[in-house]
Design goal:
The complex is a heterodimer of chains A (about 325) and B (about 525). Chain A contains 13 helices and 2 strands. By secondary structure, chain A is mainly alpha-helical. Chain A has a single domain, classed as Orthogonal Bundle (ABC transporter involved in vitamin B12 uptake, BtuC). In chain A, α3 packs across α10 and α11 packs across α12. The longest helix of chain A has 27 residues. Chain A is globular. Chain B has 3 domains: about 240 residues, P-loop containing nucleotide triphosphate hydrolases (Rossmann fold, 3-Layer(aba) Sandwich), CATH 3.40.50.300; about 150 residues, Rossmann fold, CATH 3.40.50; about 80 residues, no CATH class. Chain B is about 30% helix and about 25% strand. Chain B is built from 17 helices and 23 strands. In chain B, a hairpin with a 2-residue loop joins β1 and β2. Classes of the chains: A mainly alpha (about 325), B alpha/beta (about 525).
Chain lengths: ~325, ~525
């Protein structure tokens, strides 16, 4: 039993937790932006697959790592534009469209992978982002290496949370995004285009989701596998609710979930096969459902979430 | 407010020959209108007279088919809200356009700065809002969330939004519909300060009293046309009413009531909340042959009370007593079985099912009765003939019993609901906002039928936010505030202002819940 608790005080556990959290942070921030603007983006899972592939493929073809990240972001933004176009001006069901985007983006990615790399049997590798220890900060015991001996993409994830929070609460465009998710007619009445704000938000959010996908191929692993997103997009959707649509709380949610995930892997090793490993695999998901039940019942969701806005209608 | 009397007053706004068609319907037919600096013009008309359409054209939400608009001597490009805002036109919509979970300040600065800047300019904005608030009596804390504000305060935020953008012309669409008498007084005081500062106001309303007390000039619209224009000081109330209605104003005579026994009573009933306050230890008695009016600002528990009586909300404690017996189980079905006639608050949401036919809707409360079903199969012929009866008896304008209810106008839909509720002479009648959004003719009709029901001995409860309606119809008035009821007062016992005090919570269950 004490072994199980000791894990919590090892640096390697927290390093793993933060690494697992990083793609979730990108994806959660992306979904949060979309939903704050009133658009549910169930395309997230597929957009992450597409981002994982395009980012990785750019580097595989000889591109710079950061170019890869940029290409992934642009891929995401394009799928975001499609989702935005279908759900905002056309006002289609956001659920159906989102699931459609997920199916489209992931199938298109697998198809493209097969077309571009028809001969390969084992997935080709790239040289991924390497951990970079931030001087001084990384010397703090336990938390230092966990937070500050990571790859640059993880640092970008931290920055993203701060940037999303700053933009949403401290800038005019953020106020417009939140208002458009609360009451689009308030935005229209002040002379701002609801369509433009919503599509812009969905594109920006989708770009972040794609970077979250790219983290997996360019920072966590070094090649692209089918099914590697493995439900992370869906988790991000739950995390947004868990975080009551607030960037800071959502960040905590992402880290908690990742910590559970890292913990269960280590617990599996300790118990040495007495308990079936599937039970441990389940743990983070069960806990996230429990957390949702406890936390999210009182959550105040954006009032206009999932409601298409038609000009002139009341 | 005599600025308009001066002949040299500068014209700030001129609408010329505005025509707007929606398909075959002509919503605005060659309407011309002008507004002078420091003037309040009331735009008077019934629902559907074209007031809101005209103002939406002015504000750029719609584009006129014909006609021009000039603001401060310059033509206004059509169909562009930004141009209207830039020209100094501010509009306070009837349905507020505020984002609820944001602060007052955020709502006000929204759209006033270039979107891509790193600064909201909160400090500056806060200062400017405070200054405007003091200057014009629009007291509201810039850092509070909209959800925490009362309806009156939200309206102040809407006005501040316009003033913050340096509006010189303010359009108020039915601004008093949601206000208490005190809030209305405060609004009028603000308007006086605004015109004194040189702003001009267009005040849209269908209430004659307030039009007379606030405006310099009245423009009356009827059926999309300009029906007349009068200087307020020279027009009589009657004259304005007749211009608005296009004939004699229907008047209901209501005689003294002869209250009988208590048919329905609540005793110390509490409920959970339902889109507003919860009921707390509420007791009320509805007597036969008497109309009880429930006044109150919306959200104070009216919804819970209506739902409780209709059987859709459970009582947590207390008793429901029907015909002298305590009802053990009270559900919508028992309520109907015990003879409740129900006019729901929102005819579109809970009153009728828009995509179903008139016949289907009129039997929706009674489809189980042997009259409409045999061995579990519906008797459509009986339903259609019943629908036909109601259409005839209640003067519903509708093509046939098979017509979809969605196609009916609000007034006709309400008459249909009235027919369904009053058929079979129920002895307990619950009427929530029975005339909301109806024009004068339909209002008079609904009132007449409710009075008729009273006179044949039914116990009628009217829940309304329209104080005029409450005062006209009620034999007894009860005020609801934060889920508490005041003790009943007889007809004419309290003045409007005294009722307003009660509605604001002074004197309802004193000291009972100041914590809330």
């Amino acid at each position: 039993m004490s072994e199980a608790i000791e894990i919590l005080f090892t640096a390697s556990f927290w390093v793993a937790a933060i690494r697992i959290a990083s793609p979730l942070i990108f994806a959660t921030m992306g979904e949060l932006i979309c939903e704050r603007a009133g658009v549910l983006n169930l395309g997230i899972e597929g957009i992450m697959v597409a981002g994982a592939f395009t980012g990785w493929f750019t580097v595989y073809m000889g591109g710079d790592l950061w170019t890869g990240v940029l290409v992934a972001a642009m891929t995401g933004a394009m799928f975001g534009l499609l989702h935005g176009f279908l759900t905002v001006p056309l006002g289609l069901s956001q659920h159906v469209t989102g699931i459609g985007i997920t199916l489209l983006a992931s199938s298109l990615t697998y198809f493209t992978y097969r077309i571009l790399l028809p001969e390969v049997t084992s997935p080709p590798k790239i040289e991924p982002f390497q951990p970079f220890a931030v001087p001084v900060l990384s010397d703090i015991p336990v938390l230092g290496p966990a937070l500050f001996n990571q790859t640059p993409l993880t640092y970008l994830a931290y920055f993203t949370v701060a940037a999303v929070a700053f933009v949403l609460y401290r800038t005019p465009v953020g106020v417009a995004v939140r208002a458009v998710g609360e009451n689009p007619s308030a935005v229209e009445a002040q002379g701002i285009s609801v369509t433009a704000v919503r599509i812009g938000a969905v594109m920006a959010g989708s770009a972040l989701m794609a970077i979250g996908g790219a983290f997996l191929t360019m920072s966590a692993f070094n090649s692209f596998f089918f099914e590697m997103i493995n439900g992370r997009g869906w988790i991000a959707i739950a995390l947004v609710v868990f975080g009551s649509w607030r960037p800071g709380k959502a960040l905590i949610g992402a880290i908690l979930f990742a910590a559970f995930d890292a913990y269960q892997v280590r617990l599996q090793q300790i118990t040495g096969g007495v308990i079936p490993y599937q039970i441990f695999l389940m743990m983070p998901f069960v806990l996230s459902i429990v957390a949702l039940v406890v936390v999210a019942r009182r959550a105040t969701y954006p009032k206009a979430l999932m409601i298409p806005y038609q000009k002139g209608e009341r | 407010m005599d600025h308009a009397e001066r002949p040299e007053a500068e014209t700030v706004l001129r609408l010329a020959g505005i025509t707007k068609r929606f398909g075959p319907l002509v919503a605005n037919d060659a309407i011309s209108l002008s507004l002078a600096r420091g003037e309040v013009v009331a735009l008077l008309g019934e629902n559907g007279a074209g007031k809101t359409t005209l103002m939406n054209i002015l504000f750029g939400h719609y584009t006129a088919d014909e006609g021009q608009i000039e603001v401060f001597g310059k033509p206004l490009p059509p169909g562009d809200p930004n141009a209207a805002l830039a020209a100094g036109i501010g509009m306070v919509h009837q349905h507020f356009t505020l984002a609820d979970q944001m602060t007052v300040l955020e709502n006000i600065v929204l759209g006033t700065r270039p979107l891509w800047s790193f600064n909201l300019g909160k400090a500056e904005a806060r200062q400017k809002i405070r200054r405007l608030a003091t200057d014009y009596g629009l007291d509201v804390d810039p850092d509070r969330m909209i959800t925490e504000l009362s309806v009156g305060e939200r309206q102040r935020v809407e006005i501040l939004k316009a003033l913050y953008r340096e509006a010189r012309i303010l359009i108020l669409d039915e601004p008093t519909a949601v206000l208490t008498p005190m809030e209305t007084e405060a609004l009028f005081a603000t308007l006086k300060k605004l015109v004194a500062a040189g702003l001009s106001v267009i005040f849209i309303s269908h209430k004659l009293g307030e039009v007379q007390s606030v405006s310099d000039r009245v423009v009356v619209l009827r059926g999309g046309r300009l029906a007349g224009e009068r200087r307020t000081s020279e027009a009589t109330r009657r004259e304005l009413a007749e211009l608005m209605v296009g004939g004699q104003l229907p008047v209901n005579e209501i005689g003294p009531s002869t209250p009988g026994v208590t048919l329905f009573a609540l005793k110390d009933v509490s409920t959970r909340s339902m889109g507003g306050a919860a009921l707390r230890q509420v007791s009320i008695e509805l007597r036969g042959g008497e109309i009880t009016g429930l006044a109150g600002i919306s959200g104070n528990g009216q919804a819970a009370l209506a739902a409780l009586i209709a059987g859709t909300l459970e009582a947590r404690e207390g008793d429901i007593i029907v015909h002298g017996e305590t009802a053990r189980h009270w559900s919508p079905r028992t309520a109907l079985d015990k003879g409740l006639g129900r006019i729901p608050e929102d005819r579109h949401a809970t009153g009728m099912i828009g995509d179903m036919s008139v016949a289907e809707n009129v039997i929706s409360e009674a489809y189980r009765s042997p009259r409409f079903s045999r061995f579990g199969f519906l008797d459509w012929a009986a339903a259609a003939s019943f629908a036909g009866d109601i259409i005839k008896a209640y003067d519903v304008k509708c093509p046939s019993p098979d017509a979809r209810v969605r196609l009916l106008s609000g007034g006709n839909m309400q008459k249909l609901i009235l027919g369904r509720a009053l058929d079979g002479d129920p002895d307990i009648i619950l009427a929530s906002q029975p005339t909301r959004g109806l024009d004068v003719g339909a209002v008079a009709y609904v009132h007449a039928r409710l009075i008729e029901a009273r006179d044949r001995g039914a116990a009628v409860l009217i829940i309304s936010e329209d104080l005029d309606e409450i005062q006209t119809l009620s034999d007894r008035i009860v005020v609801i505030h934060r889920g508490h009821l005041s003790s009943p007062s007889a007809r004419g016992e309290l003045s409007v202002m005294e009722l307003g005090e009660l509605m604001a919570g002074h004197g309802v269950a004193e000291g009972a819940d100041h914590a809330a």
